[in-house]
Amino acid sequence: MIGIDILEIERIKILADDENKLKKIFTENEINYFNNFKNKYEHICGFFCAKEAVKKALDCPNNLSFLDIEILHSNSKKPYVKINKKYEIKKQIKISISHSKTFATAVCLII
Ligand SMILES: CC(C)(COP(=O)(O)OP(=O)(O)OC[C@H]1O[C@@H](n2cnc3c(N)ncnc32)[C@H](O)[C@@H]1OP(=O)(O)O)[C@@H](O)C(=O)NCCC(=O)NCCS
């Protein structure tokens, strides 16, 4: 199973600048990660795409919410996904994120 998403970074700014909205989509760990960057919007947009790509790849089981999908990084900065344990997903979920000045994109593969 596969999922993909792409989004204009400009479109994420409204959400990114509203703390309440941000907290409905991103976990504390994720928000702390964004705050390490001068241009946090491209990272926020990439994470948003990653969550959308994961939803598509998983076929949105039982209304899987944005907060049920957490994007984290390995020591080499490679992104990986942690899904809320209540979904008991046994398969491996792989993601890849990329961003330019104007767009962010992400792909998710379930194997
Ligand atoms: C990792 C690398 C390929 C990213 O490419 P880039 O063109 O600079 O940036 P992109 O916009 O395409 O991608 C950025 C995203 O790459 C992902 N990424 C970072 N390190 C990664 C790694 N080691 N492996 C896979 N993905 C990685 C992250 O998700 C990052 O976005 P995020 O910080 O918002 O989560 C580049 O920084 C690089 O070559 N780093 C040094 C060598 C390295 O670690 N290579 C690993 C792959 S060969």
Would you spell out the secondary-structure blueprint of this structure?
Blueprint: E1 2-8, H1 9-16, H2 19-25, H3 28-34, H4 40-58, E2 69-73, E3 79-83, E4 93-99, E5 103-110
Helix pairs in contact: 1-4
The protein binds coenzyme A.
Coenzyme A is lined by residues 43, 46, 76-79, 97-99.
Give the topology string: H per helix, E per strand: EHHHHEEEE
How many domain units? 1
CATH class value: Alpha Beta
Strand order of the largest sheet: 1-5-4
The span between the termini is 7 Å
What is the level-2 CATH architecture name?
Alpha-Beta Complex
The biggest sheet amounts to:
3 strands, antiparallel
Any overview of this molecule?
The structure is a single chain. The longest helix is centred in the middle third of the chain and has 19 residues, at 40-58. Helix content is 37%, strand content 29%. The chain has one domain: Ribosomal Protein L22, Chain A (Alpha-Beta Complex). The chain is built from four helices and five strands; from the N terminus they run βααααββββ. It has 111 residues and is of the alpha+beta class. The strands form two sheets. Strands 1-5-4 form a three-stranded antiparallel sheet. A two-stranded antiparallel sheet has the order 2-3. It has helices at residues 9-16, 19-25, 28-34, 40-58; strands at residues 2-8, 69-73, 79-83, 93-99, 103-110. The protein is globular. The protein binds coenzyme A. The site of coenzyme A has 9 residues, from helix 4 and strand 4.
